[in-house]
Amino acid sequence: MTPVPTPTELASRSLLNPQPGQLHFFDLFKKGKDGLYAKDLLSDYIIGMPIFAVDAGIIKAWEGTLIQVPFTKGFRLRKGKGGGGLLGQLHLGRPFLGPDGKVLRLRGVLWRGGDDGKEELEESDLTSVDAIQRHPNYDTWLSDTFYCGKGKDDGTYVQVETFDSLKRCDENVNSKPYVPGQLSISRVIDAKEENEEDGGDDEEQEAEAEDENNASSSRFNSNLEEEKARRHSPRRDIDEVATGYVELSEDDDDYDDDAPLSPSSSSSPPAEPAPNPEPEPDPEAEPESESEPHPISRARRAKSDSTKLSTKKRTPFQELEIEVTILTTYKDQNGHRDTTTDKCGVRNSVAETRDLVERSLARIAAREGEGLEVLERIRVVVKTGLSSDKHKERSVGSVREPREFVEAVLEGLDDEEGE
User: Fold this and answer.
1) Smallest Cα–Cα separation from 37: which of 73, 11, 64, 60?
2) 327-383: per-residue pLDDT in tens?
3) Which of 94, 44, 99 is nearest to 70 (CA)?
4) Which long-range contacts (CB under 8 A, 24 or more apart) does 408-415 make?
């Protein structure tokens, strides 16, 4: 969960207000996954970029939500007074200008920047993503505004952490004390100015935020203890197998940053387990016995007799191994062929697999940009089960775009588990 910052906390945070060309857009979000800039105050220019990027399909909604102050679950602007719904903060820093050099209005907010010179800025007539992309200066504007005058893949920052989902990134950020980013500058908000903007109700807003933070901390500690107990439990049924993170479909757009740590947890203290009148055999008591059913098989039978898991929740990671291999044959202008293998690796999460596939396809697209003709892309393998004799495999040959096939396989995992 992302705690709601109080006005006092916001007043103490530094402001990220770089000039266009100073910070590559994808470096910003790689750093965000490592916890850098995720809690900083942001200029209207920095806030406007991910809004356009999500609406234009440049990044996913969950990646935009890495920026915690203005955005909440589903990549929505947080509610509040002033600043277009940004928890009462004023419009800050540089404005977000469109390819016509005028201030853009996105998500109903005019991203005009701070007070300095705002009266001289004119609002753009480009009111949609399509209109912006059709502007004759769009390509130059995109390169200069987002990519420091270079290309999409020309960032220089190398991500340190391997977290690649909103839940894991948020937990990583929230577990550490706030540290300003390298380009962020210290900013002191005038208390009188803030009072006038917020209508003088800062104390009430701060008290409500602190109450919510205290409640969330209590829920987190309770859920953590329950999580530890469940991890050491000798048996877990199908709904308790996923002791890790349950990934959400559709790029994690439905991720709830107010949800408890575990999918089966709640805000109330965990109830005492009822005694079992007829103890069943421990599935881990004799792991070498051939007569003992595999725990996954028992889980599957239990699942087939009950309601299937929602398609929003993927197969628990103990039952799922995903390996995607894309073999690509290139032919250069002289007719010479070269075959490369992009192994996306074995992953236990559908969301992580999607991201790895996208990265591999981006590398392939980069080679196409070098003038190499792509002849084929083949082989996608999905394994379910913990042993080699309990897996399903699919392969595809000679397809131009493997993305749709991979997605179809991933989407079909729930149905296969119910067979």
Assistant:
1) 64
2) 666 666 676 776 666 665 555 566 666 676 677 777 666 766 666 666 655 555 555
3) 44
4) 409/380, 409/382, 410/322, 410/350, 410/353, 410/354, 410/382, 411/311, 413/314, 413/315, 413/320, 413/350, 413/382, 413/384, 414/308, 414/309, 414/311, 414/314, 414/315
φ and ψ at residue 181, rounded to 5 degrees: -70, 165
Neighbour tally for 112: CB within 10 Å: 22
CB-based burial label for 397 (10 Å; 0-12, 13-18, 19+): exposed
Q: With beta carbons less than 8 A apart as the criterion, state whether 67 and 42 touch.
A: yes
Tokens in use for 147?
Answer: 């990519």
Q: What element of type H or E holds 219?
A: helix 202-231
Structure tokens at 26: 């994808």
Q: DSSP class of residue 301?
A: H
Q: Which amino acid is at 338?
A: D
3-class SS at 156?
coil
Find the helix or strand (DSSP H, E) in which 380 lies: strand 373-384
Q: What is the mean pLDDT of residues 79-86?
A: 48
pLDDT band at 208 (very low <50, low <70, confident <90, very high): low
Q: Are strands 105-106 and 373-384 parallel, antiparallel or unpaired?
A: unpaired
For residue 103, give every residue at least 6 positions away whose Cβ sits within 8 Å of its Cβ, in sequence order, or none: 95, 96, 97, 110, 111, 112, 113, 121, 122, 123, 124
CB atoms within 10 A of CB 245: 19
C-alpha closest to that of 51 among 115, 98, 101: 98
- Of 162, 181, 213, nearest to 8 by C-alpha is 213
- Nearest residue to 129 (alpha-carbon basis) of 59, 57, 195: 57
The sign one gets for the Cα dihedral 391, 392, 396, 401 is negative
Helical (H) or strand (E) element with 378: strand 373-384
The whole-model pTM stands at 0.45
**Two tokens at 271?**
């109830």
CB–CB of 70/86 below 8 Å? yes
H-assigned helices in 17-137: 25-33, 44-55, 61-64, 129-134
